[in-house]
Design goal:
Nucleotidyltransferase, domain 5; single chain; five-stranded mixed sheet; globular; about 130 residues; alpha/beta
Length: about 130
């Protein structure tokens, strides 16, 4: 993809990657290899009850956004934060281009792109113009 801005809506089941400019957008969907993996194990199990980070899933998302100039990470759950931590550890150059991490429920594709365009317009206005 050859667009400067990128929004990633992610949860533990799928990631929607949309790269865009003011007039065009290109979208893709990434799924973890195992669709049966759950966020939490059975109650009463030994340990924290959390499934470990899905490295392969977050790496696939990382590979999909590697060329984006500015990145907005959004989603309803902790997956957006886990992705950001993954980027900080395994792809710091990409993590440096993440401009914000926001909680967003389950928008349609059109709602997501409108939200992202609005976010980047506001972000661009707040930047120093010198």
């Amino acid at each position: 993809m050859s667009h400067y801005h990128c929004v990633v809506w992610i949860d533990h089941r799928e990631a929607h990657v949309i790269e865009f400019n003011p007039n065009d957008a290109e979208a893709s969907v990434i799924h973890p290899k195992s669709k049966h993996e759950h966020l939490h194990r059975k109650h009463g199990a030994v340990g924290s009850g959390n499934v470990p980070e899905n490295h392969a899933y977050y790496q696939a998302v990382s590979d999909a956004i590697k060329d984006a100039g500015e990145i907005l990470l959004v989603g309803p759950s902790t997956a957006k934060l886990e992705l950001f931590k993954h980027l900080q550890t395994h792809a710091p150059a990409i993590a440096a281009r993440v401009v914000s991490v926001e909680t967003v429920d389950h928008p349609t594709s059109d709602e997501l792109i409108r939200f992202a365009r609005h976010h980047f317009i506001a972000d661009d206005r707040m930047r120093s113009q010198t």
